[in-house]
Amino acid sequence: MSVFKFKEFSIIQEKSAMKVGTDGVLLGCWVSCEKANNILDIGCGTGLITLMLGQRNLIGNVTGIEIDKIASQEAQLNISNSDWEERIEIKHTSLQEFTSQLKFDLIVSNPPFFPQNKSQQSRDIARHTNTLSFEELIDNAANLLAEKGILSVIIPKDSEEYFCKIAATHKLYCNRVCYIKGNEASEVKRVMMEFRFVISIILTEYLTIETARHNYTDKYIQLCKDFYLKM
After folding, report:
1. Do 106 and 149 meet the contact criterion of CB atoms below 8 Å apart?
2. What H or E segment, with its residue span, contains residue 169?
């Protein structure tokens, strides 16, 4: 069985198309979640970020939604095996069909971002925007977000301007951003952003993951040390 073990929980990912990855771990570590009472994880996969937020926020309720049936089943299993089962709910649904009477203080997503293709393979569906475009993500998130809530995502750096432009049409503005490099010699490939319904000075951060292969920077270790076993 394929299992990824963290310090306080494990992720069974035997059948799911998308396995534990650096993008999800980074967003789960970085996002501002401590004061949120109601949290929504869009496209939760096997429940990685959902569980990370359950660990970091000991008072909030977390809902994870996942369109893929197999992934949602493994997410439910992972939640059931955790210490935070009573505060976490997994729903097998698309964002477009998801409804909630509650507004969320935090909405987080590691969304599909590759251009649409015609593949019916589950991994391709999870990675491409066939089932969830940036426009649909932002539109639905804006309707589900509380007045003082935060929308947080991790996306490719080259999608940053486009994503911010769409967000602004829904009166969501970037207040915090982190640019991510694999190493000092590499280009920025990913960006994490937090959006609110208010314009303010943007808090800008930079993160380099490695100094050499498997030699991690102090900042990366500090960010992820509560989760990775060997940190």
Report:
1. yes
2. helix 160-169
Cα–Cα distances in Å, from 13 out to 6, 77, 147?
Answer: 13, 10, 35
177-190, pLDDT tens digit by residue?
A: 999 999 999 999 99
Pick the CATH number of 3-224 from 3.90.79.10, 3.40.50.150, 1.10.10.10, 3.40.50.300: 3.40.50.150
Question: Which one-letter amino acid corresponds to residue 102?
Answer: L
**pLDDT tens-digit readout, 39-73:** 999 999 999 999 999 999 999 999 999 999 999 99
- What pTM, to 2 d.p., does this model score? 0.91
Handedness of CA 164, 23, 176, 105 (dihedral sign): positive
Q: What's the farthest any 2 CA atoms get from each other in the chain? A: 48
Strands (E), the chain: 3-5, 10-12, 38-42, 61-66, 88-92, 104-109, 145-156, 173-183, 188-196, 203-212, 215-216
Residue 114 carries which DSSP code? Answer: B
DSSP letter at 17 equals: S
Please give the single-letter amino acid code of residue 32: S
User: Domain limits of the chain?
Assistant: 3-224
Whether residue 126 has pLDDT greater than 60 = no
The pair phi, psi for residue 117, each rounded to 5°, is -140, 180
Measured over the CA atoms of residue 144, residue 148, residue 152 and residue 158, the dihedral's sign is positive
Q: Is the pLDDT of residue 123 over 60?
A: no
How is residue 185 annotated by DSSP?
T
For residues 95 and 184, give the distance between their C-alpha atoms in angstroms, rounded to a whole number. 37
